[in-house]
Amino acid sequence: MSLQGRLQYLNTGEDITYAGKTYKTTKFALAGLAKASYFLAEASEHFQPFVAAQAGVGDIRYPATTPPLQGCGPTGAPGGCRDTVRTGLGLAGVAAGVVYMFGESVGIYSSLSALAGFPDFALNADLNLGVAFIK
Question: Of 35, 3, 29, nearest to 88 (Cα)?
Fold first, then answer.
């Protein structure tokens, strides 16, 4: 069992001014996940492949272009504005990867994770690299 945080930064959005009001684009998305992993090798092995199921709450955001509007970006240029759209609140998915242990308690890991967001549905894939501390 493990807990995982997900922080996403998007630099693709721009503020939109429409009908005299400015709408700020969202540049960050946060999520928290609980993960249950099943290791396919003995704990004493250095190379440990695993599969996992995960569930949590939070957002995943994607770049989007609006229909043509007057007032995009800092110059107020007409055209399709670049914004972000949200998926999630509920998140669930699967993952598979490997952990390479350097000793009894420290290793590195790599995994491919697929998450579905709902009720605002989208399917997302992430490549995760990190350090594992095992007690």
Answer: 29
CATH at 123: 2.40.160
Residues of the domain holding 41: 2-133
Distance CA 53, CA 111 (A): 12
Instruction: Say which residues have a Cβ less than 8 Å from residue 80's Cβ, sequence separation at least 6.
Output: 65, 66, 67, 68, 69, 72
Which of 16-20, 49-53, 88-92, 123-127 is predicted least confidently?
A: 16-20
Average pLDDT value for residue range 72-91: 77
Give the count of domains, the chain: 1
What pTM was computed for the model?
0.77
Tell me what pLDDT residue 24 has: 84
- Give 72: exposed, middle or buried? Use CB within 10 Å, 0-12, 13-18, 19+: buried
> 89-128 burial by CB neighbour count: b if 16+ within 10 A, else e?
eebebebebbbebeeeeebebebebebbbeeeeeebeeee
